[in-house]
User: Fold these one by one.
Assistant:
Number 1:
Amino acid sequence: MPNTQDVKALVFDVFGTVVDWRTSLITDLSWWGGQRGLKADWTAIVDAWRAAYMPAMDDVRKHPERGYVILDDLHRRTLDRLIDQFEITGLSETDRDHINRGWHRLNPWPDSVPGLTRLKSKFVIAPLSNGNVALLTNMAKNAGLPWDLVLSAELFQHYKPDAETYLGAARLLGLKPEQVMMVAAHNGDLKAAQANGLKTAFVPRVTEYGPLQDRDFGPEGAWDIVARDFNNLAEHLGC
Amino acid sequence: MPNTQDVKALVFDVFGTVVDWRTSLITDLSWWGGQRGLKADWTAIVDAWRAAYMPAMDDVRKHPERGYVILDDLHRRTLDRLIDQFEITGLSETDRDHINRGWHRLNPWPDSVPGLTRLKSKFVIAPLSNGNVALLTNMAKNAGLPWDLVLSAELFQHYKPDAETYLGAARLLGLKPEQVMMVAAHNGDLKAAQANGLKTAFVPRVTEYGPLQDRDFGPEGAWDIVARDFNNLAEHLGC
C-alpha cells in the first residue's frame, strides 16, 4: 500500500470523475426534447455548455468585486446564450430551469456507487466540487451517491483550483491537508491539491469528453495512487 | 397532513434532538475513566460542561471582533476549566483531546436512525447544529446517521438562534425558507426558525437533561407538526 496510512478523508472531484456529465446530459435533454417536440443538436449544445465552464469560473475569479456566483447561475447564463445561439424558440422559464437542472440529474460512472460505498466503510467521503451545494445534494439523491457530507466551492466562495478550496476542505474536516486525499480524473485538479499538501489519487475517465477528449488519458504527476476505477481505488486503500 | 406539502428539506437540531448527549457522555467517560483508573464525578462534570454551552456561544456572539470559534474549541476551553475545578490530575493532552471528542461519539435516541432513514426517502435531511462540521461528520459516522449533507453553524460563522443559520441553510439548499422544516426538541430553536420563515416540527425529548430537565416538556408554539418521535414524524410527513 502507498504511504497513505494517515489519510482519514477522501474528497472527490465530481463532474467527470464521479459522474458522466456528457452522456447524462445528452441523453436527458434528447429525451426531454423529443417529448416536447423540440428539434435541437443537444450534443453540440452540451459540448458548448461545458466549454463555457472554465471561462465562466475564470470570470468570477478575475472579478471578486462582483461577488461569488454559484455554478447553477453560471450554467444558466451560458444556457440562455446558447438557446439564442442555437435558435431554440418557445422555451418557458420552467423549461429553462428544467434544462439547467440537468446538472442536478447526472448519472454516475458504473463503478462510482459501489466504489464509494466500499471507501465509505473506512474513510469520510465527500465531493469537493465546483458545483454548488444544492446541485451536489440533489445529484447525490438522484444518483445514490453515499456522501458523508457535501463540500463545495460555494462554501469557500472560491472555485477550484484556488487554494482556498483544498485548504478549506481540510479545515472543515478538522484534518491536516496530508490527512485528506483528493480523487480526480483531472491532472490539473490533483496538481493544485498536491501543491496545498493533500494526498492525491488519479482515476482516468478517458471517455469523459467523448470524441473531444484531448487530455487526462493518464497520470501526469507523482500522484500517491493511480487506480483503474473506484473499486480499484478501494483495493489500493485496503477497503 | 399539515400544510407542509412544499417542504423539500428537513434540518435537525442535533444535541438533544437526534442524540442523547448526556447519557452518552456520562457512559463514555465513566467507562474510559474506569479503564484509566481515574475517579471523578462524571455526571457532575457532564452537566457542568453542558451548562457552559450557552454562555460560551453568547461570548462568541458578543465579541465578533475576536472571530468565530468552533464548538470543539469552546468545549475544550470549558473542559480545561472543569478539569481544574474538579481537581482531576494527570491528564495528558491526548487524554484531554479524547474527552473533548466525546461529543463526536454521542449515541442517537433509539428512534433517530430508523426515523431519519424513512424521512430520507422523501426529503433532503441534514443537521443544522451548533456543532462544527467535523464534529457532526464524525458523529454521523459513529452513530450511523444517514445525513444527505452536513449543515453547521460553522458554515455561517454564527451560532443558532442567529438568523444567519436558518436563512443560510435555506440558501445553501437552493430553497425558500418555507420549503425547509426545522426539527427540534427545543421550543427556542423552533421559535427562531419560524421567525425566519421555516416550517417547524417539535419532537419532545423529556429526558435530555435527566433530573435537571426544566423545560421543553411539550410544544410551546404554533408548530406545524408535533410528533412523538422521529418515526411518528415520518408518519406525519407521509413517509
Number 2:
Amino acid sequence: MAIVLAVDIMSGDHGVNVTVPACVAFLQKNPDVKLILIGDRDTIYKYIGNSLSKYSDRLEVVHSTQVVDMDEAPQLAMRNKKDSSMRIAINQVKDGKAHAIISAGNTGALMAIARYVLRTMKGIDRPAIAKLLPTIKGEVCVLDLGANVESSPEHLLQFGIMGTQLMKAVTHKPSPSVGILNIGSEEIKGHEGIKKATELFKKSNLNFYGNVEGDDINKGTVDVVVCDGFTGNVALKTIEGVAKMISFFLKEEFTNSTLSKLMAVISYPVLNRVKQRLDPRKYNGAVLLGLNGLVIKSHGGADEIAFYYALEQAYHEVNAGVLNLLEGFLNQHKELLDDKDDSKKELAEFKYLNML
Amino acid sequence: MAIVLAVDIMSGDHGVNVTVPACVAFLQKNPDVKLILIGDRDTIYKYIGNSLSKYSDRLEVVHSTQVVDMDEAPQLAMRNKKDSSMRIAINQVKDGKAHAIISAGNTGALMAIARYVLRTMKGIDRPAIAKLLPTIKGEVCVLDLGANVESSPEHLLQFGIMGTQLMKAVTHKPSPSVGILNIGSEEIKGHEGIKKATELFKKSNLNFYGNVEGDDINKGTVDVVVCDGFTGNVALKTIEGVAKMISFFLKEEFTNSTLSKLMAVISYPVLNRVKQRLDPRKYNGAVLLGLNGLVIKSHGGADEIAFYYALEQAYHEVNAGVLNLLEGFLNQHKELLDDKDDSKKELAEFKYLNML
C-alpha cells in the first residue's frame, strides 16, 4: 500500500512558496508516496504548475478556505478555524485517508487541534513533542520539547515509553537506552519530581540508564533523553544557538583575510562535510507523540529543503510503524501506566484545552 | 594596594599538580598580586620548588590538615572539615586577609561553607552561581547555574540585579541588558513564576529586555540571562556538549583521509583561532554571587591553563570592584527587595543548609 501524507500547504512563514516545491520534489523522489495537499485550491494550482498532471495519480488537492495564523491563540484557532488547512489536514488522518499529517504552522494550534481531533492514545495522558538530534555516536531522541511546561513523574515515564518505541522503530535498536535529564551539581540532585520519576523508570522494563546531564545529549550517552517541556525547549534552542555561534566563528575566521579565504577554498570539501552533518534542516520535523495519528511539525521558518526533510521524517516514521509499535507496547504494559478511568482523562483533556 | 587571592590548593581532580604550577605562572604574570596558598605545607613546598624564594614577598603558605572530598556531602564537609583547605581559604576572605578565594573543589561544599562563613549580602536571599560565556557579540553572564534548583520570582530579580552589577563592573557597559530565559513555544508561555518575575523586572530600574530563548544565550541578545539553577545548569552543560560534538566532527572530517589532513595543516592558523575562541578553559571560573566575599569556583577537572584562567577571573572581578558595586546598588535600591527581617532570613539560611 502506498504511504499517504496529508500536507498543510498554507502553513509556515513562507507558505506555498516553500511547501509546494518541497512536495513536488518529494513526489519525484519517492514513487510509492501519495500526497494530499490541503489549502486554497487556486493558489496550489498556480504554484504546482505542470507537476499536477505529471503526478495526477499520486496527488490530491483538498480545498480549504481558512488559514491558522502563526501567532493565533490556539483556542481561537480551534473554535474559529474549522475550515483551515491545518484542521482539514488533521481530519485526513482521523478519517483514515492519510497515514500522517505535516504542518509548518503554529505549534500551539497544531497541538491543540490535533489533540482535540485525534485524542491521546490509551495509556498516554499528555502528548509530547519529540525530535531526533545529531550526536557524536548517531542520533538521540529528546522529548518533551515544549508541549508541556511541567511534567509529573508519570508523564516523564510516558515520555520515556514513547521515545523508546520511536527509537526502536526508526533505528531498529532492540532496546534503546533512556536517561532522565538532570543536573549534576553536587549540592542538590534535581527536583523532587525527577527523583520520583527515577524510581518509576527503575521499576519499568525500559532500558533505563539513569540520570544524564546537558552535555550527554550530544555525546550520545543514551538513545532517548526525557525531560519536561520547559527544560527540553531551552536545551533544543540552546543547541541551535551554539551551532550558529560556532558556524559564525568559523566563517569569520575563514574570511578575515585573503589568506584565510584561500584556506577556506582549499578546505572547502572538509568544511562542507562538517556543515552537512550539522545542517539543522536535515533534522527538521518534530513529532507530536501520544496521539491516535502521526503529526509532524516542521519548523515555521523552514525553507524548501527543510520542509522536504520534514516530509521524509513523516515518511520514515510511517514506514517504521512507530504508532503500531507504541500502541502494542501500551497494550502489553498496562501495569506501567496509571489506571485512570476515561472520564477523568477527558476532564484533564478539557482542562488542558481551556488552559491554552 | 596589592590584590590578594586565597587559593584552595588541595582542590580539584588533580590537586597540587595543577593548582601550584598555575599559581606560579599567575604570580609571574601579575606583579601586583599576592597569593595565599592553603593546603598541606609539605606538599606545597615540594611542588613549588624554587619559586618559593623567588616570590617570597608575594607568596604565603597557610597550613591545613584536611581536604574536602569531591563527592563529600556538603553538610558533612561543613561539620567535620573545619581545618580543610577549602574552609581555611574561605576564612582568609572573612578575616579580611584576601580579596577573593578560588577553589576547584566540591561545588556543594564550597557553596555551603562559603554561605555559612561569609553569609549572604543584605538584600540577597539566595546566592547564585554566575558565569561569563562567549557569544557572537561578546560575552554574556548567565545565572543561576545550579546553586538553587527552584527560584521564586523575587530570587530571579535578585539574580538579575547581581548579574547586571557583575557585567557593569567587568565590561564597563553603563546599563547591561537583562533577559529572563523562557520558552517560545506558542501554546504556553512559560511557568507562572516567570510571568510574575517578568512583572517584577518591568517595575525595576534594570535594563530589562524581556524574555529570551535558549538560542539567545550565544547570540548575545542580552548581557545577562537570568534563570533558575536547574535550567541554567542544563543550558550550560548543553553548550559544552554541542561545542564538543562540533569539535569532534571537525576533527573527524579533517583527519579522515590524507588529503583532509593536508587541508587541516594548511588551514591550521584559522582552525586554531576558532579553537582559541571556543576554548572552555578561557571561561573557567564561575562566581558565587550574593555573599559577603568573592568566591570563585574553578571546574573540578581544570588543567593548569584552566585553573590559571580561574585565577584571572578572580583577579579581574576584584579589580573591577564587583562586590562594592553590588553592595552600593543594593543599599540604594532597597525598594526592589523584600523587606524580610533578618531573623526570617537566618531561618531560611538554616533551612537551606539543612537541606543540603
